[in-house]
Design brief:
The protein is mainly α. It is 42% helix and 0% strand.
Length: 84
């Protein structure tokens, strides 16, 4: 053996610096900063209800997360005194 082969690091810079700089301007996940979610809601439901929710989301062609966010936003609209 003559030596170790150096593998690229876990995160390496792209070959084109311009694309690297432009990539930093894109928000993670493609969502604007105002739509970033900062809290997680945990609820206990039966396995049967969980299955019905997943099937409903699948039939609508959306994720369970998006479907439930829309449902909660519709049921609990923000009012004038609410903080963002």
């Amino acid at each position: 053996m003559t030596g170790r082969i150096r593998k690229p690091g876990f995160a390496s810079r792209p070959g084109n610096p311009d694309s690297w700089i432009k990539a930093a301007e894109t928000p993670p996940g493609g969502k604007p900063a105002g739509e970033a979610f900062t809290a997680r809601l945990t609820i206990d439901i039966t396995p049967a209800l969980r299955g019905r929710i997943k099937v409903a989301a699948f039939r609508r062609g959306i994720t369970v997360t998006d479907m439930l966010r829309d449902l909660l936003a519709r049921e609990f609209p923000s009012s004038e005194g609410d903080q963002p």
